[in-house]
Amino acid sequence: MGTSPHLRRAGADDAAELTRLRLIMLASLGDVPEAGWTRECEAAFRERLSTDPQFVAYVIDGGDRLLSSAVGQYTQSLPRPGRPSYVGHIASVATDPAHRRQGHARRAFEAVHDHLVAAGCFRINLTTTPEGEGLYRALGYADPGGPTPLSWFAAPTPGTTGKSDR
Known about the structure:
By secondary structure, this protein is α+β, with helices and mostly antiparallel strands. It has one domain (6-137): Aminopeptidase (3-Layer(aba) Sandwich). Helices cover 32% and strands 23% of the residues. The protein has a 5-stranded mixed sheet with strand order 1-2-3-4-5. Strand 4, helix 3 (104-118) and strand 5 form a beta-alpha-beta unit.
């Protein structure tokens, strides 16, 4: 009998499984990484989870593999009156296809959100797919209004579609 799925903060030893889940998320967007991407992504997860206190991942651990994950990070912005000076970003929310519709993504996402709020973030950004939008709106995420946010993206590298920055 296997271990029941449980929420926990990810560590550097989870880099390969976090990469596997990230690849599932990217594939759902039609984004196909180039050769060598897996090794590069695993190394990035390993390093960031080991050394960067402003980078966090929470996972649903199924015992023999991770079932779901969410990743967050925050940066310091210039101060504004009455607001903390950190801005968060949640990315790479993914669930293994065999374990969807069981609340795993919600649990991992909420843990990252709560972590960023506890760190002092006054705003948390994310980019959503149509499939995830309902969940995020149900958790209080909305279009920010005000000035239209603009983004610049570098041209995609050969071998990728460049559809996602998540």
